[in-house]
Amino acid sequence: MAGLLRRAARCQAALPLRGSVAKGPIKPIGPNFPIASEKAMGPNGWMRGTYHFWSLSKPFRGSVYQTPWVAGGIHNPTIDPVIHFNTQDRFQTMTAWEFIKCFLYNMLTARVWLVMVATPVSVTMFFVWLEHRREPNEIFMDREEYWKNFNDFYYGIYFDHHHYSHMMCQRRAHKWGYAGLDITLEDHHH
């Protein structure tokens, strides 16, 4: 136990002392964050990038992306990392809109992943919704009855779902013994 305390005290003593980063409250972002120099980064910002989706004649605007070890790093940095990552006064110096803007810029990289997940899930859920809003098929049915009217049972739900729903309603009424007890089931307008 004494060894753990001695080791913890040694680590605490080795930590650098924190001094003041700036005078007054520290705002971690600048007025144009996260927009950087277009000469260094190419066109950047919301819906402004190297590749332009809406143009077939000139889809490439600016330089094509190159990795930092090919193009070099940022030679004239616009963000001071000591101030940027010091967030002690963020609630006093930043507005709600700036918080939202920073969050949305972080979400830009997730667009492709969101589409990759949302597209198949949406398509699947559409067909689930389409199938569940229709009359369910009878799971157990006499084979002779099914083949007597195969087209209605197999294709009816897709091509004439009103007729199919009415047919299933009539079948349930006869199957469970309440046919003729409700006047609406025998109505000619139904």
Describe this structure in words.
The protein is mainly α. The chain folds into two domains: 66 residues, no CATH class; 71 residues, no CATH class. Helices cover 50% and strands 0% of the residues. It contains ten helices and no strands. The longest helix is centred in the middle third of the chain and has 22 residues. The model has no long low-confidence stretch (mean pLDDT 76). Keywords: Membrane, Transmembrane, Transmembrane helix.
User: How many whole angstroms does the radius of gyration measure?
Assistant: 34 Å
Structural domain tally: 2
Shape: elongated
Arithmetic mean pLDDT: 76
Order of helices and strands: HHHHHHHHHH
Largest sheet: none
Q: Kindly, what is the distance between the CA atoms of the first and last residues, rounded to a whole number of angstroms?
A: 84 Å
